[in-house]
Specification:
Largest sheet: 6 strands, antiparallel
Distance between the termini: 34 Å
Mean pLDDT: 85
Number of helices: 8
Low-confidence stretches: 1-20
Strand content: 15-25%
């Protein structure tokens, strides 16, 4: 076995089963089987940052560990076309128009059920934590149209009755800030709609870049670090924040059940002395492995030249 292959194998052994989709649930493992049965969106870069048994990441200690549970309604894109009798009817045309041509960000664990089976979550605006609402207002509702990146965005709608939707001359559109000429987007005025009169739509995959914000309010001594997304990293490092939606339920649309819950775990982690020693040892091991790989590659090239009777570089 080549040194590089041995190094890769050692890395997998040390990392354990970090890439699987099983999480702790009441002493048992919660498994997102969809992650094994369906493809993952091409741009997915998120992976569970801690073990599935509740411990902090290997080599780290936990400064704070906060778990919170949230509720949503889980629809499919196909529900947007179910007509006036469906709860999504007042928003369906506006949602379809807004997501047309945009990249789907994935469901839980980046799963892509494809086409009309893709997940679409709906939450009451006032049930979102305050830090999440503020982020959506600043980074989505006040975001210039030209700066959309062509991906799905959080869609905030004013509630509208089915009757009002049926008689409307234009489809409902997501609420957006009113641009002010010459003023920074951060100062644009938002529509005056009461929190109780708003709902927000999004794909589960949109949660991952802002997970710590869900647990920031009431996060105790770590509220500030959870609210600071510059501390949030996909893999644990010293004095950083990691998070993951480690459990969620599934809808049962055949029986009219669309209500689901999801749980988010957020940790502020600090590298332990043992973890630092292990990391430094690992770094040294990898440097030596790369050096050995380069030496081995050079030897193979020289052996190849000798077998072909090729002159050394200095002889050319």
């Amino acid at each position: 076995m080549k040194t590089g292959s041995a190094s890769a194998l050692l890395f997998l052994v040390l990392q354990g089963l970090g890439s699987t989709h099983a999480y702790e649930k009441d002493g048992k493992h919660f498994i997102n089987w969809d992650a094994h049965e369906y493809p993952i969106v091409a741009h997915w870069n998120w992976h569970r940052p801690f073990p599935d048994h509740g411990d902090p990441p290997m080599g780290f200690e936990t400064k704070c560990n906060v778990v919170k549970k949230f509720h949503a309604r889980n629809y499919r894109l196909g529900d947007l076309r179910n007509g006036e009798g469906h709860p999504l009817y007042p928003f369906s045309d506006g949602i379809e128009k807004f997501i047309a041509g945009r990249t789907y960000p994935g469901s839980w664990d980046g799963v892509d059920h494809g086409g009309m089976q893709r997940d679409l979550l709906m939450m009451e605006w006032r049930e979102l934590p305050v830090y999440v609402r503020k982020w959506i207002e600043d980074h989505e509702m006040r975001r210039p149209e030209m700066d959309d990146g062509r991906t799905w965005r959080f869609m905030v709608f004013q509630k509208k009755s089915k009757k009002a939707a049926a008689t409307a001359t234009e489809p409902a559109a997501p609420l957006r800030a009113i641009p002010t000429e010459g003023a920074a987007a951060s100062t644009w005025t938002l529509p005056e709609v009461a929190d109780r009169d708003k709902v927000v739509f999004f794909a589960p995959g949109q949660l991952y870049p802002i997970l710590p914000l869900f647990n920031a309010k009431g996060g105790g001594k770590c509220e500030d670090s959870f609210a600071d997304l510059s501390r949030y990293v996909p893999a644990a490092k010293d004095d950083a924040v990691v998070a993951w939606p480690f459990e969620h339920s599934k809808p049962d649309p055949e029986h009219g059940k669309v209500d689901i819950y999801f749980k988010i775990r957020t940790e502020h982690v600090l590298e332990s002395d043992h973890g630092r020693d292990r990391r430094l040892m690992w770094d040294a091991l990898m440097r030596n492995a790369r050096r050995s790989d380069r030496k081995h590659t050079r030897a193979e090239r020289e052996a190849g030249r000798d077998s072909l009777g090729m002159p050394e570089r200095d002889e050319l």
